[in-house]
Amino acid sequence: MEIYTMNADGSGVMQLTDNENSDGLPRWSPDGTRFAFSSDRHEAFKWEVYVMNTDGTDVRRVTHSAPGVTAINPVWTIK
Questions:
Q1: CB neighbours of 15 closer than 8 A, spacing ≥ 6?
Q2: The pLDDT value given to residue 30
Q3: Alpha helices in the chain (DSSP H)
Q4: Which of 25, 43, 45, 65 is most buried as measured by Cβ atoms within 10 A of its Cβ?
Q5: Rounded CA gap, 45 and 58, in Å?
Q6: What is the per-residue pLDDT across 36-60, written as a single tens digit (0 to 9) for each?
Q7: Which region holds residue 25: left if phi is over 0, alpha if psi is between -120 and 50, else beta?
């Protein structure tokens, strides 16, 4: 499973992730500049939350769950 973006008319399809495991559940940031998403890219079946720019660059892991715990549903909050 990978993350793609496209224009509203279906044109301009761009693949943002290329992971041998799975990336999913993308969420736009409130300002539209980043995505939060879940991935098991560091350990199969161990989901963590990552953020990246909307062009697929600057991927950063933002959770570091304890063994046996997964972080699977990313959400943005506004302070």
A1: 2, 3, 4, 56
A2: 92
A3: none
A4: 25
A5: 23
A6: 999 988 887 788 999 999 999 999 9
A7: left
